[in-house]
Amino acid sequence: MTREVRNALLVFVGAVLVLIVVDGTVLHYVRPGMAPLVALAGVVLVGLALIDVVGDLRGRAEGHDDHGHGRSAWLLLVPVLVVLLAAPPSLGSDAVDLAGTRTVAVGRVPDEPLPAGPAPAIALVDLVARAAATPDGGALAGREVTLTGFVVPSRTGAGVDLARLVISCCAADASPVRVRLDDPGGRVGGPGVGGDRWVTARVRLVPGTATRETGFVPTVTVLDAVPTGEPSPAYEY
Fold first, then answer.
1. Which of 79, 92, 110, 162 could potentially form a cystine with 196 if both were Cys, beta carbons 3.0 to 4.6 Å apart?
2. pTM assigned to the model
3. CB atoms inside a 10 Å sphere around CB 220
């Protein structure tokens, strides 16, 4: 591989990293706080290539044989082309199924009280953490809240759950968090055919259901539900 081709490749890879940050695709892979680092990495790659180009234009000698680095440099194109031509979607119900019966992710109990107003929107992981912390549900007792998640088959084999994936750094460390739906009115229904189905639901916690025996999966009664699009970001933190 010549220096010119190698530098063009670095510019291409760097530009793609910046592009996926600008269009939001990066949130399929990492949490929002890491997006600036991805963009910075892209800028650095472009900068390194431009510095090399400037050096070549000034007649600076190469000083080494580039042929030995050709194969490894071309490998950079593989993940970049995957992102450009067939960008993987955010992880969904398949990742939850792979987790099997593993205990759901239970995060830190939020210090702040529930937002004021009727049925405030809260993160699904926050509801699970609050429900697991106190048998009576604590601040959730008697309150209606709004959750957004995707529908997955219940671990009990009957009905459906509402789930999200929680990431600490990137999609590689995603862990499922879910709630069991007591849906007497059939507002959510069965799982979507052939893929995920996102729903926003107004629910009320059934106290005492987030226990070690249930894998810290609380049950919520569905009061209302409507289909919705995938939020951005799709993950919780």
1. 92
2. 0.75
3. 26
Q: DSSP character for 192?
A: P
Count Cα atoms within 13 angstroms, Cβ side, for 197.
Answer: 16
| pLDDT of the residue at 80 | 63
Minimum mean pLDDT among 57-71, 106-120, 150-164: which range? 57-71
Amino acid at position 82, single letter: V
Q: In this structure, which amino acid lies at residue 108?
A: R
Distance CA 23, CA 192 (A): 28
Q: Is the omega angle on the peptide bond into residue 176 within 30 degrees of 0, that is, cis?
A: no
Confidence class of residue 179 from pLDDT cuts 50, 70 and 90? very high
Print burial letters for 184-199: b (CB count within 10 Å at least 16), e (below 16).
eeeebeebbeeebbbb
Residues 6+ apart with CB under 8 A from 135: 207, 208
Q: Which residue has the tokens 């507002």?
A: 187
Question: Are the beta carbons of 170 and 29 closer than 8 angstroms?
Answer: yes
Q: How far apart are CA 218 and CA 126, in angstroms?
A: 12
24: Cα within 13 Å, side-chain hemisphere: 6
Strand locations in the chain (E): 144-153, 160-166, 175-182, 198-206, 219-227
Compute the distance between CA of residue 226 and CA of residue 138 in angstroms, rounded to an integer. 27
- Burial of residue 92 (number of CB atoms within 10 Å: 0-12, 13-18, 19+): buried
Say whether 205 sits in a helix, a strand or coil. Answer: strand
- The crossing angle, in degrees rounded to 10, of helices 77-85 and 3-22 is 40
